[in-house]
Design a protein that fits this description.
The complex is a heterodimer of chains A (278) and B (368).
Chain A: H1 7-48, H2 64-68, H3 76-103, H4 111-119, H5 126-140, H6 147-170, H7 176-183, H8 188-216, H9 220-225, H10 232-242, H11 247-277
Helix pairs in contact in A: 1-11, 3-6, 3-8, 3-10, 5-6, 6-8, 7-8, 8-11
Chain B: E1 11-20, E2 23-33, E3 38-42, H1 49-57, E4 64-70, E5 73-74, E6 85-88, H2 100-109, H3 115-128, H4 144-156, E7 162-166, H5 174-191, E8 194-199, H6 202-208, E9 211-216, E10 219-224, H7 226-231, H8 236-241, E11 246-256, E12 259-264, E13 267-273, E14 284-289, E15 295-296, E16 306-318, E17 322-329, E18 332-339, E19 347-354, E20 359-362
Parallel strand pairs in B: 3-8, 3-9, 6-7, 7-8, 13-20
Antiparallel strand pairs in B: 1-2, 1-4, 4-5, 9-10, 11-12, 11-14, 12-13, 14-20, 15-19, 16-17, 16-19, 17-18
Helix pairs in contact in B: 2-3, 2-4, 3-4
Classes of the chains: A mainly alpha (278), B alpha+beta (368).
């Protein structure tokens, strides 16, 4: 026991007080950062239903801009291109994340090195990737830019995320289950289909969602490799820059994209969390 | 020329050699297991017992094998899914995304058995392990003991020629383990099936097996009935592993029929030769005695066929069912297990044991 008046006793009390203060500071800072992220998105949503969004301040509210999405249809073609690219990237991410994700945990040597190589594109600035691909394929190999080059840069961008999503699941996969299946008479393809596929499915779906989402909203890489093809982010960016007649629609479009992206992210994180728990 | 026609053994392994990156895991091992036999491969970790089981199951390919046949079929080069064996894994390896019933049916499903037939046989299998009401349960809803039963049912419904058990009791608590030992043995007798079990527990091996193969450093040191292994160890290693903590080294100084005499630094000991080859005079040898076969103050029993030495009791360790007494004797330190609380404090005692309870064998490693 510490004597009530002793120095050590007072120090212990001070320490407890300090911890309480630290908890409050952390909470406030945490909320602050969250507000930094979400406030602009909410602000955008509010502006998108304002009569004069260009004024920068919400005023009288209207659904007119959302209505005009149906009349001025310049955004529909880019949307379909974006969806097309996103679906291809999503499928590529699912297949490759599964192949790499199930192989990586089973490697005996060089696992860390390989993982590093796969994740490195995460830290390469998007513009650099865009320029690199343009210089190499367009100027050096003289390929025509278009859908395939968009798919390529989006895949480069999305694959590390897809792989991480996959590894959360696949690194917990117990390979002894495959021995058990073989022992019970299952051939290699059967073992994959009956045991690995269902148990890795959450990771595959997550990988696909990452691919889809990141491709759908990708801009910096697309700028350089799109050629004459226009994706939705390229469209909204171009419209915003030109301050053309479509500008009020951009608020609506961006709000919709933000809502859909958030919904998809929440869904994939939830799926992942559910599987990890069970 | 006369050829003896033999009924194919459940397992016939001859001269199996296996290495992991230069280290020998199995050093020319041969093993023959009869139909309906319960054989236990017993040994410490790293002795090669699990490797041998994995080679029989088809999970490892040996570097060389003169013969490896299951029920008369040469399985060398045959992958696990084409071998008529099934394994109960130490960690059960039940499929977490399937129900109990689906797990048990899986081996039948891959064999193309129709759903109705599958269901019937799975229910029979579950009844056999007393889990009839658990067909629709998820694996994570089961206790450890229930999971193990499901693993047994899943392996048994495929009607394997050999059931392989890889430390199946390893993850169970003491009480459940003892119950399962008896239950698994009864199940094996009931089915008249061939079981090959791997374990490091001598108690498990003695309780469950028809025969025990004791492995050490990649070789089978001794193959015999539980009584053979427990009372008549062929090597010093087997003696020590089976709990003969009293080991005395010396040289053979006399052979008289069934009784062998050992000279241990001037003290003479009488024992029974249990080594693989007959003893020779002057041969370095060991003597081994189970602690529970040593009597303290065997005053009335001295005489012919008895070894008797004076000594000093040093300490007593209470073990529940018995008490281990450490004795410093004329022939060296000894441990005697006595019933009850035993003695306390340092007192002069004499210790003794019968020649037939004193196993003797050649010193050193098993030669090739």
């Amino acid at each position: 026991m510490i004597a009530a008046e002793s120095f050590a006793y007072k120090a212990a009390l001070r320490e407890a007080r300090l911890i309480r203060v630290a908890v409050w500071v952390t909470l406030i800072a945490g909320f602050g950062v969250t507000a930094l992220i979400y406030a602009p998105v909410i602000w955008l949503g509010v502006l998108s239903i304002s009569v004069d969004p260009l004024a920068g301040l919400p005023g009288a509210f209207t659904m007119r801009w959302y209505g005009s999405l149906f009349t001025s249809t310049g955004w529909i073609q880019p949307l379909f291109i974006s969806l097309e690219v996103a679906v291809i990237v999503s499928v590529l991410c699912m297949v490759s994340a599964m192949l790499v994700g199930r192989a990586l945990p089973r490697l005996k040597h060089g696992r860390g090195l390989l993982l590093g190589a796969f994740l490195l594109p995460l830290v390469v600035p998007g513009i650099v990737v865009g320029i690199d691909i343009f210089i190499y394929y367009k100027m050096f190999l003289t390929f025509k830019m278009g859908l395939w080059s968009l798919v390529l840069v989006h895949f480069i961008w999305a694959f590390p995320f897809a792989l991480i999503g996959m590894l959360v699941i696949s690194s917990r996969f117990d390979v002894r289950l495959l021995e058990a299946a073989a022992d019970l008479g299952a051939a290699p393809w059967r073992r994959f289909w009956d045991i690995e596929r269902p148990l890795l499915m959450t990771g595959v779906v997550t990988a696909g969602m990452f691919g889809f989402m990141l491709s759908l909203t990708e801009l910096p890489r697309s700028i350089f490799v799109a050629g004459r093809t226009q994706t939705l982010p390229l469209f909204t960016w171009a419209e915003t820059m030109s301050r053309g007649s479509h500008i009020s629609l951009i608020y609506c479009l961006n709000t919709l994209i933000a809502v859909i992206s958030v919904a998809l992210s929440v869904l994939s994180v939830w799926l992942l969390g559910r599987r990890v728990k069970s | 020329m006369s050829e003896v026609v033999e009924i194919a053994a459940a397992l016939d392994a001859v001269d199996i050699l296996h290495q992991y990156s230069g280290v020998t895991a199995l050093d020319h091992v041969s093993l023959r297991v009869q139909e309906g036999e319960f054989l236990t491969i017993l040994g410490p970790s790293g002795s090669g017992k699990t490797t041998l089981l994995r080679i029989i199951g088809g999970f490892e390919t040996p570097v060389a094998a003169q013969r490896l046949s299951i029920a008369g079929i040469d399985v060398r080069g045959l992958p696990a899914n084409h071998r008529e064996v099934a394994t109960v894994f130490q960690h059960y390896a039940l499929f977490p995304h399937m129900s109990v019933g689906q797990n048990v049916e899986y081996g039948l499903k891959v064999r193309g058995v129709m759903p109705a037939g599958r269901r019937k046989r799975a229910e029979e299998g579950l009844r056999l392990v007393r889990l009839s009401d658990k067909y629709d349960r998820r694996i994570h809803q089961l206790s450890g003991g229930e999971r193990q039963r499901v693993a047994f049912a899943r392996a048994l419904v495929t009607e394997p020629r050999i059931l392989l058990l890889d430390e199946p009791m390893g993850a169970l608590d003491e009480k459940l383990r003892r119950e399962m030992q008896v239950e698994v043995r009864a199940l094996q007798r009931h089915l008249k099936a061939t079981f090959i079990q791997v374990t490091h527990s001598q108690e498990e091996a003695l309780t469950m097996s028809d025969r025990i193969a004791v492995m050490h450093r990649g070789r089978i040191e001794q193959l015999g009935t539980p009584a053979d292994i427990f009372d008549r160890p062929a090597t010093r290693f087997v003696a020590a592993f089976m709990g003969m903590t009293n080991l005395i080294d010396g040289t053979v100084s006399g052979i008289d029929g069934k009784i062998t005499q050992l000279d241990a630094a001037g003290q003479l000991l009488l024992g029974t030769w249990t080594g693989p080859r007959p003893p020779a005079l002057g041969q370095p040898a060991f003597a081994a005695i189970h602690p529970q076969r040593i009597a303290i103050d065997p005053s009335a029993r001295t005489g012919n066929g008895w070894n008797c030495f004076g000594g000093q009791a040093l300490s007593a360790a209470y073990r529940g069912a018995h008490t281990d007494i450490q004795v410093s004797s004329q022939i060296g330190p000894l441990t005697a297990a006595v019933a009850g609380m035993g003695i306390s404090g340092a007192v002069a005692v004499s210790v003794g044991w019968r020649a037939e309870d004193c196993a003797m064998g050649p010193a050193g490693e098993l030669d090739s």
